[in-house]
Amino acid sequence: MINADSLRLTVIGAVMALLVPALATAVTEGESQAIQPAHNYVGNVESLQRGAKYFVNYCLGCHSAKYVRYNRLAEDLGLSEEQLIENLMFTGERPYDAMTNAMPAEDAERWFGVAPPDLSLTARSEGVDYIYSYLKSFYLDDERPTGVNNRVLEASAMPHVLWELQGWQEAIFHEEQAADGGVNREFVRFEPVTQGVLSAEEYDRFVRDIANFLDYVSEPVQLERRNLGVLVILFLLVFLLFAWMLKKEYWKRVQ
User: Fold this and answer.
1) Handedness of CA 78, 83, 85, 86 (dihedral sign)
2) How far, in Å, CA of 86 to CA of 91, rounded?
3) Which among 132, 207, 218, 225 could disulfide-bond with 38, CB atoms 3.0 to 4.6 Å apart, if both were Cys?
């Protein structure tokens, strides 16, 4: 006969058997894509203001963030309507317009082979660390039409639009003969070729601000949601205390 402890251990073992392979796969994929932590904080308004400026100047020409309106952006980032119009509204005519890109889709497909995606939900679908690492991982590759490749997303159609800020770098790979006669390539490191306008630390902060802004864009109410969640948990804890006290009051009369 199976006792409760044996059944509990069996269930735990079954759950671990399902989870461990999935976790191992996630770690392996993360290592192969060289994902680095962004360490961003979506509540940093100054970072969001810088990220909005960088996004408008470097990204909005090709990409859009069509699920966010300019006036909501101004309200959350503490910007006046004059600051909004002067510094951010390059593709909209009215404050309540969405953040659409300036490039026609047919031109984008002709130049890049595919239309640049909308970035409204990229931080939720791929993760902030993915965006941060992607923007740092372009390297020279003569075999690609744009002259560059990317360690995070191999064969990416996007050119390195931030090359002037970061500079050019090349990827160093270790190659060895495989058993099947092919060649295995293992990434070793990036080596700078030319110096950019920004230092490595300044470029890291630049990219982190863009990733932070896209994190905000993916869910503008996430800070409110988290704060509300804390209040709900506190309410449930207080309610649990009263429920426990009421239960004691009822059951103390039961002999």
Assistant:
1) negative
2) 12
3) 132
